[in-house]
Amino acid sequence: MDVFEEMGELTRRGQAFALATVVWRQPPSSSQPGSRAIITADGELRGWIGGACAEPVVIREAQRVIAEGTARLLLLGTPDQFGGAVPDGMTVIPISCQSEGALEIYIEPVVPLPHLVVVGGSPMARTLASLAGALGWRTDLVDGPDFTTDRADERSMIVVATQGHDDEDVLNRAVAAHPAYLGLVGSRRRGATVLGYLADRGVPQRELDRVRVPAGLDLGKTTHEEIAVAILAELVQLRAAGALPGSGTAAGAAAGAVAGAVAGPGRREPADRPPEAVDPVCGMTVATASSRPFRYDGADYYFCCAGCRQAFEQNPDAYTRKETRC
Question: pTM, whole model, 2 decimals?
Answer without folding.
Answer: 0.61
